[in-house]
Design a protein that fits this description.
36% of the residues lie in helices and 25% in strands. The protein is α+β, with helices and mostly antiparallel strands and 379 residues long.
């Protein structure tokens, strides 16, 4: 693989270039101004991007636009304004920063971390799981593949591409804050599918027409785990507050005992979230944003929390089942995005009908001195 000697320092513009297979392209502009008064630049397509981590997400959420460190590889050069490189060569770049005036209301959660939505889906083999709020944003920003004149957002870079979009998560959502029946799920999928087709006519949308026969499997397959998780959360969340060091042992026993009674795996996302919400000092950390515990916690609150954790589970399953695809969960939920990046899921495998993965919680999920205890007690 050829590694370009030209290492750009700042990406100032990101847009769609119709002549290049309707793909996402990236325009690089070097900071340094050349003696002849111009800045060297080039455009890449078909590139891969290294996901960003938890700390990068925290910093990015404080900014109005997007400014993140960027490492890319296998980028195909499609034009340049300098003579020491040729079009069609492949470029890697590591000392790079993406700076864009585009907003990024939706965050793409992927294997290894996160990226702005369209940056997490730069190739045609990408598959994007959409939550309802992101679908609403797409509809607000696009009509028939054209921007509606709002402030530019990375979601607009889905336009004009045959990208695979799945609104299947909407089959689990309902206005009653409980798992919908088959008829309600079918109606919801049909409605969101029609909205997405009007907004993104070139996208491939997995809605009722293609997954109707699998809808029962999806809803019914999630029903029991969600209901077990609801019962687990309803027992613990109403009085879930930060635990003092002297009461940690009692708290561990209480949480793991409840998990066993309700049939929730000890090393699961709901259990990790509850442990984190109680063990993190001063109630800090993204787990509380996901669970939203309160004295008035009810079945609907527990369902909403389990739906968020189930979305992450669907992402993990997708990564395990379809390793050849670039799977993304596209969400506007910043708390969920922080939780995903902080649990640091890895080692995804699917074998003998089961999927497995590893978690390495960082200090936003568990105090460092408790990670080994968590690994040992949740075997």
């Amino acid at each position: 693989m050829y590694k370009s000697s030209f290492i750009p320092q700042r990406c100032q513009h990101l847009t769609i270039a119709p002549p290049v297979r309707d793909a996402v392209v990236m325009r690089y502009v070097e900071n340094e101004i050349q003696p002849y008064g111009t800045q060297r630049s080039f455009t890449l397509t078909d590139f891969d991007v290294q996901p960003c981590n938890y700390d990068c997400l925290l910093a990015a959420l404080k900014q109005p636009g997007v400014r993140i460190p960027l490492k890319i590889w296998n980028g195909k050069m499609v034009d340049r304004n300098f003579g020491d490189a040729f079009e069609g060569q492949y470029v890697n770049a590591s000392s790079t920063e993406l700076e864009s005036h585009f907003t990024s209301k939706a965050i793409g959660l992927v294997r290894g971390g996160w990226l702005p939505s369209a940056m997490a889906a730069t190739r045609d083999d990408s598959a994007v799981i959409l939550d309802r709020c992101v679908i609403d944003e797409i509809v607000h920003h696009l009509e028939n593949g054209m921007p509606r004149g709002r402030k530019p957002d990375f979601l607009e870079l889905f336009a004009g591409r045959p990208i695979l979009l799945s609104p299947a998560l909407c089959a689990l959502e309902s206005n009653t804050r409980s798992l919908p029946d088959h008829a309600t799920a079918t109606i919801q999928l049909k409605e969101v599918g029609e909205k997405l087709r009007r907004a993104l006519p070139d996208a491939r949308i997995l809605d009722t027409a293609e997954i109707a026969t699998k809808l029962d499997v999806l809803v019914d397959g999630c029903r029991e785990p969600i209901e077990r998780g609801q019962r687990f959360l309803l027992e613990l969340a109403p009085r879930l507050s930060p635990i003092s060091r002297t009461k940690r042992g009692e708290f561990w026993e209480k949480v793991l005992g409840a998990a066993d009674r309700h049939g929730v795996a000890r090393r699961s996302l709901p259990v990790l979230a509850v442990l984190s919400a109680g063990l993190m000092p001063n109630g800090k950390g993204p787990a509380r944003k996901v669970l939203k515990p309160s004295l008035n916690y009810d079945a609907g609150d527990a369902y909403n929390a389990m739906l968020d954790l189930t979305a992450l589970d669907l992402l993990i399953r997708g990564i395990c089942f379809l390793p050849e695809r670039r799977i993304q969960l596209c969400t506007r939920d910043h708390g969920l995005a922080k939780f995903w990046c902080a649990i640091q899921a890895s080692d995804f495998h699917f074998e003998n009908g089961a999927y497995t993965y590893s978690l390495t919680p960082n200090s936003a999920i568990l105090p460092e001195d408790l990670v080994e205890q968590w690994l040992e007690r949740t075997k």
